[in-house]
Design brief:
Strands 1, 5, 6, 8, 9, 10 and 11 form a 7-stranded mixed sheet that branches. This protein has a 5-stranded antiparallel sheet with strand order 12-13-14-18-17. By secondary structure, the chain is mainly beta. It folds into 2 domains: about 160 residues, Competence, DNA-entry nuclease inhibitor, ComJ (Substrate Binding Domain Of DNAk, Chain A, domain 1, Sandwich), CATH 2.60.34; about 160 residues, Immunoglobulin-like, CATH 2.60.40. The two termini are about 45 Å apart. A hairpin with a 5-residue loop joins strand 15 and strand 16. It is built from 4 helices and 20 strands.
């Protein structure tokens, strides 16, 4: 039985509201990332991460848990939790946690020297209290935990965002609006059946993967043969998404619903109310729609944009369409496959 790796804690002295996690590789191009990045906690460039603190000057409590495998995710006691990847080059000295260079309590060489790929999960709480104090000369009011383990490079995952410091970074981030597809993408043809009823079939047609998220395109084909002229008109309008329209015999005119459920317990449900959609995610919104007749069938293709990228593990996509007489139905999607595709795309 493998025992859990102990957490080692230090009182780190920070200046200007950040500290570093770096590989110390002189062969890697030194690019300073944005403090906090787009997620509001960790900015990343090759071999280097910049963690934002609420405390501008003074002491922050920082714990490190560096081992051979993922020690497990627990977001309950933290305000912000983000996972990123750091890659060390062949001349890397090992990942270290450093601040302003004046601290005698930095963490040096937490990983072996040389080339390596690592997952770094950063937790923070008390950043708002640190920002209110600004200068903390004694006991820290802000705590961080850094978990490090060897792992292939994978997209950033935002597990939790609740503090005002992170929200400020995310709202001021000049990048593209996350509720719309952006950046280069790779189309992944899927054609996976989701469900079938007496008149309708639905399949996941494709997934377009980009660095900021992915678009799921759903295709529904509904047979309207044998209906009266009035029933057929109503059915086609229901498939086209007209509010209040439903297939004959259905008990509800509610529209198509989409729900993503991840292995870590988070969910993202489609909403057409902009105020219900989180900026940093996870969230789902519709981004494109087309509908057309095909003989005795009515076809609808609907694109749903989900952000950020899902974790690199299986997750569930659930569809429900009461207006078309389709009860909830679910399929499992390989998040690791999406992550592998996203890693190969250039930064946005």
């Amino acid at each position: 039985m493998r025992l859990p790796v102990a957490v080692v804690t230090t009182r780190l002295h920070v200046a200007d509201g950040y500290y570093w996690i770096s590989a110390g590789d002189p062969g890697q191009e030194f690019v300073v990332p944005d403090p906090g990045g787009a997620n509001g906690l960790v900015g990343v460039s090759p071999g280097l991460a910049m963690v934002s603190t609420g405390t501008q000057f003074g002491n922050v409590s920082v714990g490190v848990q560096a081992g051979d495998s993922d020690p497990g995710l627990d977001t309950g006691q933290w305000d912000e939790v983000v996972a990123v990847s750091l890659v060390s080059g062949p001349d890397g000295e090992g990942l270290s946690v450093t601040s302003d260079g004046d601290s005698a309590h930095e963490f040096l060489h937490l990983t072996p020297p040389g080339a390596g790929s690592y997952r770094v999960r950063v937790h923070a709480r008390g950043r708002d209290a640190g920002a209110e104090r600004d200068v903390v000369s004694g006991r820290p009011v802000e705590e961080h935990l850094i978990q490090i383990w060897p792992a292939p490079a994978a997209p950033e995952i935002v597990h939790k965002t609740t503090d005002e410091i992170g929200a400020g970074y995310r709202e001021s981030e000049p990048g593209p609006y996350p509720r719309l597809p952006h950046g280069l993408s790779v189309m992944l043809e899927v054609h996976q059946p989701v469900t079938m009823t007496g008149r309708a079939t639905i399949e996941l047609l494709r997934i377009d993967v980009s660095r900021g998220g992915c678009e799921f395109t759903i295709k529904a084909v509904v047979d309207v043969s044998g209906m009266t002229v009035r029933e057929e008109r109503r059915a086609r309008r229901a498939i086209d998404g007209y509010r209040g329209a439903a297939l004959p015999g259905t008990g509800s005119a509610n529209p198509l619903r989409v729900l993503l459920r991840f292995a870590d317990g988070r969910t993202a449900e489609y909403s057409d109310n902009p105020s219900d959609l989180p900026r940093s995610g996870p969230g789902v919104t519709d981004c494109r729609s087309s509908f057309y007749p095909d003989g005795s069938h009515q076809v609808r293709e609907e694109g749903f944009w989900a952000w950020p990228l899902p974790p690199a593990e299986p997750f569930t996509l659930t569809l429900e369409w009461p207006a078309a007489g389709i009860p909830p139905a679910s399929i499992t999607i390989d998040g690791a496959m999406i992550a592998r595709i996203a890693v190969g795309l250039p930064p946005e």
